[in-house]
Amino acid sequence: MSTLALTMPSSAIDQDWRRVLRWGLICGGVLVALCLVGMPVELDRRELIERYLSLGYVSILLIPIVIGRIAATQVVLEGFESRKQGLFDLVTGLLVGMFGGTCLTLLIVALDSWNLRDPLVNWSPKLFRFLTYENGIGFGAMAWIVTCGLLGMLGAASHVVPTIVRRVSATVVLSLLGLSVLEGAVDDLSEGFGLDWLTDLLYAKKGGLTLTSTFVAGAVIAVVAVLTSGRVKALTTSYREKEGAERQKASMILFVVVAVLCIVLPIFLGKIMNELLANVGLFLLLALGLNIVVGLAGLLDLGYVAFFAVGGYTTAVLTSPNSPFFAPEMHFGFALVFVVIFAVIIGLVIGAPVIRMRGDYLAIVTLGFGEIIRLLFLSDWLSPYFGGAQGITNIPGVDLGFATVKGTDPRSVFYLVLFFCAIAIYVSWRLQASRLGRAWMAIREDEQVAEAMGINTVSCKLMAFVVGAVMAAFSGAVLAAKVGSIFPTSFMILISIIILVVVIVGGMGNIAGVMVGSFVLIGVLGGPKQPGLLQEFQNFKLLIYGMLLVFMMLKRPEGLVPSARRSRELHQEEFLQDAWLKGDKLGADDDDGETVGDDGGEEE
Amino acid sequence: MPTHAVETKSAKRLVAVDRFLTFIRVFLVTMIVIGLLAFVWQQIDADNPFARWRNPGARGLTGAQFKGLLISGLSQGSMYGLIALGYSMVYGVLGFINFAHGEVFMVGAMTGFVASDKFAANGMWESNFLLCLVLIMLMAIFFSTFTAVLMERVAYRPLRNSPRLIPLITSIGVSFFIQNLVLGLFGPSTKSYPRLPEWLSAQRSVPPERIPWPDALTFQVGGTRLLVLVVAAVSMAGLWYIVERTKTGKAMRAVAEDKEIASLMGIDVNRTIVTTFAVGGAMAGVGGILWGLMFRSVTHMTGFLPGVKAFTAAVVGGIGNLGGAMAGGISLGSAESIAPLLILEPLGVPGVSQLKDAVSFTVLVLVLLFRPSGLFGERLSSEERA
């Protein structure tokens, strides 16, 4: 924390060199790592602005901007005098960016002189051509150092320029980026609404915005941004500040809008987009279940995929004519009853032994159970019943009388998923405020205290397991009907972890958060096997998931859309510190119990 | 009166869960006993109806087979032990499971592959194997230690005082990230280590033939396994020396006991924690090389299962207890290689070798059901024992 020295640096040259060096090294490391992972070369195929800019270059160019901005961020502590931001920060950004550029240059030189293709698969002439713009080493080197330096400065400048300029330019850049990156989705949408002419105008034939349309769209967005500046923020704050009945009314309106969109939108969407929405729904269903287990009850269940598998296999065995041992060929609706029964049984069987364990042991043991279930389905021992590695194929869709829900018709699958999601959302919403839900939250916060207050922790925790298991099993059942075949490989531990990321990024313990999380992550990046909107990221999405999980835990453990109670719990110390700095009488007492009680009182 | 009613009601529910747990315990133990008995009967009298009750085709094991299984279990177990040390030390000091420790092991194995591949290409692997071995081991130790220390600095240090599950979730993210970073850097293909020189991998008998020794206690051991056992033993001895006999080790034990008091005594807690991660990482690096030499194949997923099993080993031995971690590793390795044939095969389960991993997870569940503090007792500071 040497940056917080009270003696202020007097000029732009008088930098905190260690800080600059550190962030420069980080910037260079990230850039080189990205190149060696192969992201820019792979993404280079996708053009954003016809012939001028590809997604590959954007993925590299964004790094110095972001890191420049972070490097120039100042920790402002209440009660301390803070330095005015200015030229000093610009120089920091410039130096950090140039450092990153230099690392890239070194990479170019190394690429030219050695061949490390053998262990490093992306050490290729392609990367060399990408980095030098096919113009030779000298040009590449100069270009990277200068561009990265300038971009770093740009990032740092975001602290210096007036708010309105920053906000408008950020809006323009981000919306242009969104417009070009999500070209497929926009195309599909406009086709559904009969607005083909607009997209034809906007996008070039081979993909990417045309140069003119970039400027026109940019200008339009800028004008809109200037006109609406501050309004959006005011709207969200006013929503947040609403209390009681008014808040409920606003939430209701929001909910109705989302619900109507969900029902109406698929009609206008094409096959690919509907497929995508169906996948989002499947994972939302899983995430809602895990949200109850992890988010509300605080039990970190890493073997959650086991329940997904149970749902899928139960449906497969009961409905498919190809089931090897027992094939009653039931209707999907009847099968659902058994899905619930088996989910409850497995939930209890897995839950009972682990319920008394410490939180972290519970995580690993459930992980073990998740693996055991997959290994059992895969083994020769049970293959006469479940088909082993060949799985169970030929699962019929859902026959509704007037229509059949099948994987070939993603729209109907989406409506089926939507139906289950609606149930799950309603159930979670009702549970959250119920006696049981409050008991879960109490257990999450402090198990011993909860027990002392008369909560039966064992049965409450088991209930959480069971409710989560049933939701996951529904999702598995829909998956079976959608895909039409079930294999042990469809239920890797990976899925558990991805759902965990969804829940955590969205916001643990908050239904809206989980919805946002699954839309953003599964919709944009894609599930473990399902492609998302950014199909180019297929090979990198797991890397991004891992990074997101760490980042969220470090910077925003309460998630994108936090639940109020949860974020208070997580930032308890900061609340106390703020109170102490402000010289709050109650906080200064340094008595944890009292202050926490006070905080809780405010919240009611 | 109403309070009384509530009490009995909740007591009843508790009993239901407990009954179920007892049932699970009894069931598992019965299965194990039946399997074992059937196996013993098979060995005594192969045509005994009880031995053939579930599995008519069972033939039992010959002494040589049994010894072979035991040796493979021991060598695999010693690797689990080496990884388990890292889990155990970190748990002892910080009180959370470093889920990404398996990835540290994988980084070691991967480093070993890259280096040994290069050595094999220029012929040094054949001509000067021992030097190569030392070199790749040093490199693996370096990169594993680096990974572990970086991990601590970036991901875990900022979370030192946060609720217990937060660092665990972070470590899952770190593990995921490292796996996929390695996947991106080195590609998805399975990498195979170069073949070991003939003189090393040959079968040897232990103890050597010229020493008079009863045949029944002579083991035929592949040279690679022998190497694994020796290196593991040497590293364990080194670790024991560091922890028990040096000042650094003393600091580590003090920090594990109580961080605050340790810092009051003038111990640099941050530095000690970094040392703990570094030593654990080094052990995992050695384990990675041994894994590569023994199984000769590495992928980006290599760290996952050994990692979880090593954690199991740490729990079996009593987490925080270093000797226990090694003993736990060895017993888990042996159980995993012997138990499927000893217990599951007589029970008539086909394809038992596929259930190896399921067996080790079952061991974890069993240990946590019967003795949550492990076979040799936990060594944790009072605050983390809760």
Short description:
The complex is a heterodimer of chains A (604) and B (386). Helix content of chain A is 70%, strand content 1%.
Description of the structure:
Chain A is built from 28 helices and 4 strands. Chain A is an all-alpha fold and 604 residues long. Chain A folds into 5 domains: 160 residues, no CATH class; 66 residues, no CATH class; 38 residues; 262 residues, ABC transporter involved in vitamin B12 uptake, BtuC; 33 residues, no CATH class. In chain A, helix 13 runs antiparallel to helix 21 and helix 14 crosses helix 21. Chain B has 386 residues and is mainly alpha-helical. Chain B has one domain: Orthogonal Bundle (ABC transporter involved in vitamin B12 uptake, BtuC). Helix content of chain B is 71%, strand content 3%. Chain B has a two-stranded antiparallel ribbon with strand order 1-4. The model of chain B has no long low-confidence stretch (mean pLDDT 85). Chains A and B meet through helix 1, helix 15, helix 16, helix 21 and helix 22 of A and helix 1, helix 3, helix 6, helix 12 and helix 14 of B.
| Major β-sheet strand ordering of chain A | 1-2
Number of separate structural domains of chain A: 5
Specify the number of helices of chain B: 14
In the CATH hierarchy, the third-tier topology of the largest domain in chain A is known as: ABC transporter involved in vitamin B12 uptake, BtuC
Proportion of beta-strand residues of chain B: under 5%
How much helix, percentage-wise, in residues of chain B?
A: over 70%
Count of beta strands of chain B: 4
CATH secondary-structure class of chain B? Mainly Alpha
Quote the distance from N terminus to C terminus of chain B.
33 Å
Class by helix and strand content of chain B? Answer: mainly alpha
**How would you characterize the largest beta sheet of chain A?**
2 strands, antiparallel
CATH class of the largest domain in chain A: Mainly Alpha
Largest sheet of chain B: 2 strands, antiparallel
Globular, elongated, flat, extended or rod-shaped: what is the shape of chain A? globular
Estimated share of beta-strand residues of chain A: under 5%
pLDDT < 50 stretches of chain B: none
Weakly predicted, low-confidence segments of chain A:
1-9, 585-604
The oligomeric state of the chains shown is heterodimer
Overall pLDDT of chain A: 82
Named CATH architecture of the largest domain in chain A: Orthogonal Bundle
Domain module tally of chain B: 1
